[in-house]
Amino acid sequence: MERTITRILPAETVIDDGDMRLLRALPQAQQVAVGPFVFIDHYRHQSPRGIGDRPHPHAGIEVVSYLLEGGVEHRDSMGFRDRLAAGDAQFIRAGRGMLHAEQPQGGRHGLQLWISLPPELKLAEPSYTSIRAADIPRVDGTGSHLYVVAGDVNGVHGPMALSGGAVFARLQLDAGAEATLAVDTRPELSLYVLQGQIDVGGTPLATGDLGLLGSGTQVRIAARGDEVVEVALIGGLPAQGELLFSGPFVMDTPERLAQARRDFASGKMGRMEGVPF
User: Fold this and answer.
1) What DSSP assignment string belongs to 13-50?
2) How far apart are CA 43 and CA 51, in angstroms?
3) Using one digit for the tens of pLDDT, what is the confidence trace for 57-108?
């Protein structure tokens, strides 16, 4: 059975100043989550100016960064330092809370995603993992390239061990090309268009559109227009527990949210260059 688009949610333009363009597809008033994913930021900038380049905290989530272009240096309050290049991915299981900063090495194009941790992992000890482009499975078709970062797509299992049955893959299509993705029936899934125009079962989507998918075992995607298309498949099992937001913290109870704010202010999440002040 083929999955079709049930709803289109255009991303909100957060920044568009000639150098940086930042689009936010989740959360929105009408859609807080797709599976366990509660945050989708899509950015592109030309200068070394960054988003999240100053130390800042996270708690209650997994933070996924995926680079299509450019490079970035990661550092955090747990002592991890790393450098990512185009095609690399990383995720932080923030758990009870930690601080990090990302310094761009130049212009970048990529995604930052948040996954709400299930209640039993909200207070887990923080951890950091990165995966190089060469270790992300690539499936080539006629005019198509599929990169499976997490979950199962086309019978390929991604190496990123995310929570909530998370599915995250990137599909690149040449102009006029088509691809069919085989997926599990259980996850809530969506397509986010990073670049270009696509058609999904007769429904058009363009750059910045988040298309929610109905049920089924496959998704047929066709490139439209005369440019290379980039699409992200994002979703997973429904988020567990309540979703309570307070800036970079996502918890399941008001008490845990208040505790995260106290832990950050007191330095229990660690310190980086005077943060917290």
Assistant:
1) EEEESSSEEEEEEESBTTB--BTTEEEEEEEEESSS--
2) 9
3) 999 999 999 999 999 999 999 999 999 999 999 999 999 999 999 999 999 9
Assigned token pair, 83 = 């450098």
Full DSSP string of 67-119:
EEES-EEEEETTS-EEEE-TT-EEEEE-TT-EEEEEEESS-EEEEEEEEEPPG
pLDDT, tens digit, 9 for 90 and up, residues 97-135: 999 999 999 999 999 999 999 999 999 999 999 999 999
Q: Note whether 175 and 224 are within 8 A (CB).
A: no
Cβ–Cβ under 8 Å, residues 59 and 96: yes
End-to-end CA distance of the chain: 54
Q: Residue 37 class from Cβ within 10 Å (0-12 exposed, 13-18 middle, 19+ buried)?
A: buried
pTM (2 d.p.): 0.96
Q: Provide the 10 A C-beta neighbour count for residue 111.
A: 21
Q: Which amino acid is at 79?
A: G
Q: Which DSSP letter does residue 140 get?
A: E
Beta-strand relationship, 12-16 and 5-10? unpaired
Q: With beta carbons less than 8 A apart as the criterion, state whether 131 and 159 touch.
A: yes
97 CB contacts (<8 Å, ≥6 apart)?
Answer: 57, 58, 59, 126, 249, 260, 263, 264, 268, 269
Q: Strand, helix or coil at 243? A: coil
